[in-house]
From TrEMBL:
Pfam families: Ferritin (PF00210). Residues 174-183 have a biased composition (Basic and acidic residues). Residues 171-190 are annotated as: Disordered. Residues 29-167 form the Ferritin/DPS domain. SUPFAM superfamilies: Ferritin-like. This is DNA starvation/stationary phase protection protein. One of its GO terms (molecular function) is oxidoreductase activity, acting on metal ions.
Length: 190
């Protein structure tokens, strides 16, 4: 049963918000929490498995992103609890409810990982943008939380993309649709 079919209406919520509206926000935040927990683990995976001449630059760039994404997950979980919901942070809930596949690149060249990570960030950012739009129709506090996170995630993607952009301004990951395809294009750059 996914969060979209469960009744997530809380028994209580924050003042000024209807319980049904809070239930919609809880469902929305549930997937954001899963995405952030997954992103945190994916970033650590890249950090541990990156190799090649750009190793240290990428290795050191990733850890601050990991820390901030973990903080984002904590903020989302706390907002869920404040709304009267349950912050499902278990691996089983993440795997059973996520709407995306697991990260598919193992040990690999730094640029290949960054290209795949660009695809990951695109998916996460698109999900946050959709959540911002939906939350904005219900609750400005939740919308504000998501907007703040969106800015940071977009900055992290910019950091990643700086390694993938040519001097002419073209992006190695233009027109790719999967991590593996992006990683192959990134490997060509190296």
């Amino acid at each position: 049963m996914t969060s979209q079919t469960k009744d997530l209406t809380p028994k209580y919520t924050v003042p000024g918000l209807e319980r049904e509206a809070a239930g919609k926000l809880i469902g929305l935040l549930r997937l954001r929490l899963h995405a952030l927990n997954d992103l945190h683990l994916t970033l650590k995976h890249v950090h541990w498995n990156v190799v090649g001449p750009h190793f240290i630059a990428v290795h050191e760039m990733i850890d601050p992103q990991v820390d901030r994404v973990r903080d984002m997950a904590d903020d989302v979980a706390e907002r869920t609890a404040a709304l009267g919901g349950v912050a499902q942070g278990t691996p089983g809930a993440l795997v059973s409810e996520r709407t995306w596949d697991d990260y598919s690149i193992g040990r690999g060249d730094a640029i290949a990982h960054l290209a795949a990570l660009d695809v990951v960030y695109t998916g996460v950012i698109e999900g946050v943008r959709a959540a911002v739009k939906e939350a904005g129709e219900i609750d400005p506090a939740t919308e504000d939380l998501l907007i703040e996170q969106l800015r940071d995630l977009e900055q992290f993607q910019w950091f990643v993309r700086a390694h993938l952009e040519s001097a002419r301004g073209t992006l190695a990951t233009d027109d790719v649709h999967s991590e593996k395809e992006a990683a192959a294009k990134g490997a060509e750059m190296s």
